[in-house]
Amino acid sequence: MAKQYVSTTINGESAEFLCETQQTLLDVLRDVVGLTGSKEGCASGDCGACSVIVDGRLVCSCLMLGVEAEGKSITTIEGIAQGEKLHPVQQKFLEHAALQCGFCTPGLIVATKALLDENPNPTETEARYWLAGNLCRCTGYDKVIRAVMDAAAVMRGETV
Amino acid sequence: MPKVVLSSGSAGQQYTDGQTEFEVEATTFRRLVLELEQRFPGLGRQVEESMAVAIDGEIFQDAYAAELKPDSEVVLIPKIGGG
Amino acid sequence: MNYIDSGLKVVGTRPIRPDGVEKVTGRAVFAADTRSAGMVWGKVLRSPHAHARILSIDTSKAAALPGVRAIVTGADFPNIASEEAFVGEGPMNFRDLSLNVIARDKVLYEGHALAAVAATTQAIADEALSLIDVKYEVLPHVIDVEEAMAEGAPILHDDMFTSGVSPKPTKPSNIAKVVTFKKGDAEAGFKEADVIVEGRYTTKPVHQAYIEPHACLVTYNPDGQTTIHSSSQGHFMVRAYTAKLLGLEMSDIRAIPAEIGGGFGGKTLVYLEPLAVALSRKAGKSVKMQMTREEVFRGSGPTSGATVEVKIGAKKDGTIVAAKQVLKYQAGAFAGSPIGPGCMCGFAMYDLPNIDVVGYDVVSNRPKVAAYRAPGAPITSFAVESLLDDLALKLGIDPLTLREKNAAKNGTKTHYGPTHQNIGFTAVLDAVKSHPHWKTPLKPGQGRGLAAGFWFNIGGESSASVHVNEDGSVTAATGSPDIGGSRASIGMMVAEALGVSAERVRTTVADTASIGFTHVTGGSRVTFATGMAATQAAEKVVEDLKRRAAQTWEIPVEAVEWKDGKAYPAGSNAGAFEPLDLATLALKAARTGGPIQAEVSVNAQGAGAGFGAHICDVSVDKETGQVTIERYTAIQDVGKAIHPSYVEGQIQGGAAQGIGWALNEEYIYNDKGQLENPGFLDYRCPVASDVPMIEAVLVEVPNPRHPFGARGVGEVPIVPPMAAVANAIRSATGLRMPDLPMSPPKVRAALDAAG
User: Fold this and answer.
1) Potential cystine with A141: which of C10, C21, C375, C688 (Cβ 3.0-4.6 Å)?
2) Distances (CA, A) of C127 to A15, C61, C68, C116, C678
3) Distance (Å) from the C-alpha of residue B82 to the closest C-alpha of chain C?
4) Hey, are the CB atoms on C484 and A101 less than 8 Å from each other?
């Protein structure tokens, strides 16, 4: 079958690509567009390592087709930092040592941004349930949640 | 003479006909392995390849130079890995 | 040099890890992120049967599919005589490893690889797999460990005769070996006991469940020189095992460590790399392979499921006088469960006069066991620590007091031989006693459990190099893949030795062609052994810098001292010279002898054993059987925390894995021996909402054999949780749960049965 032409916006910039209809958005991001920051952990929407934001909504890119990106606005881990300036979530993950192997980290950071975009003042419980779709096997989540709560406080202007 | 104890979990007993404790004249681990191979053919190789040694309580793995004192107690145990 | 007790400026602080920014921006390159021009995709054909003879494999239709570039089967791999060799970590039987990587005449588990194809796209490769025609003769299978040991069980290997029994058996068996460890006379000891308790415990296979599936990119060149990028805990192991399995020269293989997305022991061996090399050789192209999550569950190395029986006898005052244990561990399709450590670790924390332990290594039709964080120990401690809790209850003694009474100390002789030295178990128990968690009254409806754990930790071979760059900045390279932040701690130790800030040192992981041999990252050895090599390399650089300063000042080298990153004349007699810092000395390196660097290789001995104790509070929903972890404290002797955040991280991560093992994780097989839950939805690992904050308490009893006193920390924390949770459930409900996992249906059933 012929490849499909898709026109979309990725990390604020227009992007276009050809893809096969059965390719997931994750496949397309990684193998066609070349953005390998989003990871494949399960390809079934259970681990969150492929998390991206599509039109403001947190999505597992392995559960979306590449062709569905047509006309949408997609944010991946590569678009979280602003040039050299790390996002507060990224900065706090580093300060709190909220990553060990780092494989789930892109997904967690994107999911955290989506959380704080929607709820700038989550409780610990709200943060844990929001992030329940992002599996981490290394950290036990303790330092991740601390980083998330601290980043939220920074973004509310309460601390640095 | 250093006393050698073969911990049976170390699969060394098959070379010693069930014997698990013996004295061996040696001042280094290397010499000990050679003596064991001579006395019980096959054991020395087994020790080198798949056993760790505890000399007076401290575990050594792959250490020819490890020193043995005349009253040292040497215990041969399975090599320890990890995950 | 020994830095224990000296004023440390870098070690013990919490700088940002040097590889952190690339990890939080998605730039870090993991194996599946690698690309090569013209590469093709490799896929693996796996057995749908738990046990079958392969009658024939017809690859002709697959080969004819446009886009297919190569197909390999067992026929493309050399047959290896059964031999053990210690390469990498732990004895490895290369014949078995080869048979596991690709089956020859039998498939021994569902998921067992038997062929691989390389094609221009993943879709074509998948289609080619479906065109490979395999004729199987399905055989009866067996999975449960006791069923596999029973008379009449389907036999996996006609040439497996149980070793460790006399006389040597003549009938093949699924019991690969029997091991025994004895101290004193257990039977006599039991006669002295006032109280005897017994228990029978079972556990299911669980997977290390690293979030990153196995992946590699391999290029085999026509002259045999091969490059392997792969996700592994040891690229020297990848090189050695791949060379051995394919009959290649090790020096022809360059194994480059990609970033690794978790391993926990499951990546201390190879699955895809030899297949990829064979495909690359046939296809004349680079081959990229990655496992799907299903393949990871079906085709890699979950740990043993097991049955453990324990009997403990004690005096009324809590002194344990005898202990007996029988352990039966699944090895999977080939021999090699962690039965040895299972036998050694259960009682290693205690000073007991009479111990009798017997262990069975049993094969059955499930994937070959791979290492999983303190292999063998979590299972044995689940049993022993649960029974100790029952003993405490029966004696009317506090469970902490029971452990204090029987705790191993320096000088305690273990039942497996060595005598404990420089250990910190008593300090850990003291820390439990004084911790607010232990003293806080339980909330109504909640229960509290305590359990202890032990792991040997290993040393072994590591290489590290330290270079002072022309501007005085420092690069440290080691051969240890970083799975938990070790780049940070290694850089910090080098910085401390050099007297500079952590930010002045960049740490990298060098490939097999660029650094000396280094054992796998596992066994909790990197901070200990690689840290030792890196520190020694830094110290050599310091000696070299002092020599260059001496030369510059024309004074004897003994008159130079090195402090805070500068050379100083030692005392006013030496001369009134301005200090020379790294940058100044580096600028003049050519004039004072050439580039400033040192590489050190060690075979580190004296790894310090680790002890931990965990306190767990739970509540149990009587309607659903769900257990909620309300509070969790993990206390551990870490020797010296080089970077405390990453030490805490190891403890928290290990505890979480143990909690998952305790409450939900298990391999569920149907009656055909096929795995029903090969995915993260139904193989239920802890998620963020399943656990509370995990307080990690770092007790520091220095290990004098490490320059900074460090002990390995990564494995101990997975040992106590299962019993800590089980004991908390007993405290909350009065019910002893001896079978893992203690999932809601099981807990609810136990509650119902108790009425």
Assistant:
1) C688
2) 31, 11, 10, 12, 21
3) 4
4) yes
User: Is residue C476 a contact partner of residue C494, using CB atoms and an 8 Å limit?
Assistant: yes
Report d(CA A47, CA A62) in Å as an integer. 10
Q: Taking a C-beta distance cutoff of 8 angstroms, is the pair C459, C603 a contact?
A: yes
ipTM for the whole predicted complex goes beyond 0.90 = yes
Looking at residue C751, what DSSP letter applies? H
Beta-sheet strand order (sheet of B73-78)? B21-23, B3-6, B73-78, B51-55, B58-60
Task: State which H helix or E strand residue C122 sits in.
Answer: helix C122-131
CB-CB contact of C319 with C405 (8 Å): yes
What is the per-residue pLDDT across C120-176, written as a single tens digit (0 to 9) for each?
999 999 999 999 999 999 999 999 999 999 999 999 999 999 988 878 899 999 999
C579 Cβ contact partners less than 8 Å away, ≥ 6 residues apart: C566, C567, C568
Cα–Cα distance for residue pair A83/C457, rounded to 1 Å: 43
Q: Tell me whether B4 touches chain C (CB under 8 Å).
A: no
Residue C527 DSSP one-character state: I
Query: What pLDDT is recorded for position C90?
Result: 53
Question: Which tokens hold the place of C554?
Answer: 């024309």
Whole-angstrom distance, CA of residue C18 vs CA of residue A94: 10
pTM check: above 0.95: yes
Is the four-CA dihedral C493, C496, C498, C501 of positive or negative sign?
Answer: positive
Contact (CB, 8 A) for A12 and A23 = no
Chains that touch B (3 or more CB pairs under 8 A): C
Tell me whether residues C164 and B83 touch, CB distance under 8 A: no
From residue C329, give the alpha-carbon distance in Å to each of C101, C363, C386, C675. 22, 9, 18, 19
Query: Which pLDDT tens digit goes with each residue over C197-248?
Result: 999 999 999 999 999 999 999 999 999 999 999 999 999 999 999 999 999 9
Separation CA C267–CA A86 (nearest Å)? 32
**Do C466 and C597 contact (CB within 8 A), yes or no?**
yes
d(CA C646, CA C648) in angstroms, rounded, equals: 5
Structure tokens at A2: 């012929």
Q: What is the DSSP string of C238-302?
A: HHHHHHHHHT--GGGEEEEEPB-S--TTTTSS-SSHHHHHHHHHHHTS-EEEE--HHHHHHHS--
Name which of C91, C163, C525 is nearest B82 (Cβ-Cβ). Answer: C525
The residue type of B54 is A
How many angstroms separate the CA atoms of C337 and C177, rounded? 10
Nearest Cα residue to C422 out of B52, A80, B57, A16: B57
Facing C89 at nearest CB: one of B13, B78, B82: B82
Distance CA C256, CA C487 (A): 16
Q: Residue C21: beta bridge partners?
A: none
Which residues are C754's β-sheet partners?
Answer: none
In DSSP notation, C533-555 reads: HHHHHHHHHHHHHHHHHHHHHTS
Number of helical (H) and strand (E) elements in chain B, helices listed first: 3, 5
* Residue from A11, A53, A100, A123 to probe the interface with C (highest C Cβ count within 10 Å): A100
CB contact at 8 A, C670 and C572: no
- Which residues make Cβ contacts (< 8 Å) with residue C485, sequence separation at least 6? A97, A100, C17, C643, C645, C646, C649
C311-334 as b/e: b if 16+ CB within 10 A: bbbbeeebbbbbbbbbbbbbbbbb
Q: Residue B47, class by beta-carbon neighbours within 10 Å (0-12 exposed, 13-18 middle, 19+ buried)? A: buried
Q: How far apart are CA C385 and CA C721, in angstroms?
A: 10
C288 strand-pairing partners? C41, C217
**Yes or no, beta carbons of C646 and A97 under 8 Å apart:** yes
Rounded to an integer, what distance in angstroms lies between the CA atom of residue C298 and that of residue C290? 14
